[in-house]
Amino acid sequence: MKTWNLMAGVLMALAGCGGTNTGNVGQGVPMKLKVESGSVLGVMATETSVFAAFANLESSRSNLKRFVQGVAQDVFTSGGATVSQIYKSGDEVFVAFDVRYDLATSSATGDGCLLARAKIGAEVSLECVDSTLKSLVGTLDTAQSDLNDTVQVDGQGGIYYLGYVEAANASGRETVLRRYANGTVSDLINSGIDIEDFAVTPAGDVFVVGRTTATSTDWVRKISAAGSVTTLFEKNAWFVRLFPDGNIYFGTNESEIGMFRYLTASQTLDGDLWIGCANSYTNCHYDGDTVLTYGTSYKKFFESNDRVFGIDDRGLRPGLFALYPTPAAVPLVGLSSIRTGASAGSDRIVLAGVKASGVNGLLAYNVGTAAETDLLGANNVEVYQVSASAQKVYFEGLRFSDNAFVVGEVGVDGTGLTVVATGSAAKLKTLTYVD
């Protein structure tokens, strides 16, 4: 699972914080980057405001601020606890702490809150979701997938999250998948189960990729909104994902190689593979050899204009692939290999990787026109993390020319590139911007 170190010596100041606001922050207003004392823990934007978590390493205090039209508002200032992650799922914003934090007394305490929901109005307040977890898993990052957020919501007001509780075993912890609804926390899985990925539907059904540790049995299961459990597939899967058609897709490369589709309307597994036609499965909607992928392993998914794309860096033909509605390989001129990326509005994907020349690159790909825009130019930056709005791209990584860790921003059209050296080799804790 992902762990992050604090980045000393960096403050990511948003538009209007120490400067002049140039517009609505919900419409992709540029951040202003500058080096100051402190560290940025996370940045998260909603339709109307931007949230940023800052840490002051000298005073051991963490501030969560909200920026509206460039004006900073304190949500809280903590002592002895820091924000480990900021999540956005649907229209909801969630704050996770590194240790349990008492929202009433603003202090770290053993019986305080570990996961809170930000209730956004004219003012922002925090509502505790869970105070019994040992820790949250963080963004899912197993050997197989880095696909779905650890905090997700359904269409009924339920909040779902993956974490650890204290346990009397060798690791001292046990995995739990929980639902918070109407003030009540419920465990959705029993003990002795490991979770690799999960996806929640608007109706409150949960699809889980996991394993029963006692028998080493891999499976894909459905936990209905009512709580019943159904095994859909008793083999290892690389991912599970809700696509824009409302159906669930998952990929496997064991004896059956391909991508399966679960039809939520009929609550049945499609008899034909979505992508496949290999080994014992001869019936498929799309032949894996024809579309140059079998839909088995992806490190990241992107949704743009009701289309789904995936980065495959493990298969026989690594690259970018369209997976829905029409699977096909996506040829790229600007990159020969892809490391990571992010969706940028309704019509673009931002991709980071390596060019054919061996130089690091960052480009914006228009899913409608297939046009590619080089975002870094002559800057050779190995991008570690990237996030984007419809107008702006934010990234952090290593600049090769002077071996400096940098944060940067650039328009999706390639204009307004700003790269700032942080003076520290530590990574950002989070870097997320969502319209």
Question: Mind explaining what this structure looks like?
Answer:
- By secondary structure, the protein is an all-beta fold.
- The protein has one helix at 288-291; strands at residues 11-13, 32-34, 39-45, 50-56, 61-68, 71-79, 83-89, 92-102, 107-108, 113-120, 124-130, 135-136, 151-153, 159-166, 173-181, 184-187, 193-200, 206-212, 217-223, 229-233, 239-242, 248-253, 257-263, 268-269, 273-276, 284-287, 300-304, 307-312, 319-324, 328-330, 337-344, 348-354, 360-366, 372-374, 381-388, 392-399, 404-411, 418-421.
- The strands form ten sheets. Strands 7, 8, 9, 10 and 11 form a five-stranded antiparallel beta sheet that branches.
- The protein is globular and about 55 Å long.
- Mean pLDDT is 77; it is low at 1-41, 139-145 and 425-435.
Low-confidence stretches: 1-41, 139-145, 425-435
Percentage of residues in DSSP E strands: over 45%
Mean pLDDT: 77
Total strand segments:
38
Q: Which class do the helix and strand fractions yield?
A: mainly beta
Helical segment count: 1
Helix content: under 10%
Radius of gyration, in Å, reads: 22 Å
- End-to-end separation in angstroms reads 26 Å
User: How would the global form be characterised?
Assistant: globular
Largest beta-sheet characterization? 5 strands, antiparallel
Structure at a glance:
This protein is mainly beta and 435 residues long.
Which key phrases capture this entry?
435 residues; mainly beta; five-stranded antiparallel sheet; 38 strands; 1 helix; disordered C terminus
Write the layout of secondary structure elements.
Blueprint lengths: L10 E3 L18 E3 L4 E7 L4 E7 L4 E8 L2 E9 L3 E7 L2 E11 L4 E2 L4 E8 L3 E7 L4 E2 L14 E3 L5 E8 L6 E9 L2 E4 L5 E8 L5 E7 L4 E7 L5 E5 L5 E4 L5 E6 L3 E7 L4 E2 L3 E4 L7 E4 H4 L8 E5 L2 E6 L6 E6 L3 E3 L6 E8 L3 E7 L5 E7 L5 E3 L6 E8 L3 E8 L4 E8 L6 E4 L14
Parallel strand pairs: 25-26
Antiparallel strand pairs: 1-2, 3-4, 4-5, 5-6, 7-8, 8-9, 8-10, 10-11, 12-14, 13-14, 14-15, 15-16, 17-18, 18-19, 19-20, 21-22, 22-23, 23-24, 27-28, 28-29, 29-30, 31-32, 32-33, 33-34, 35-36, 36-37, 37-38
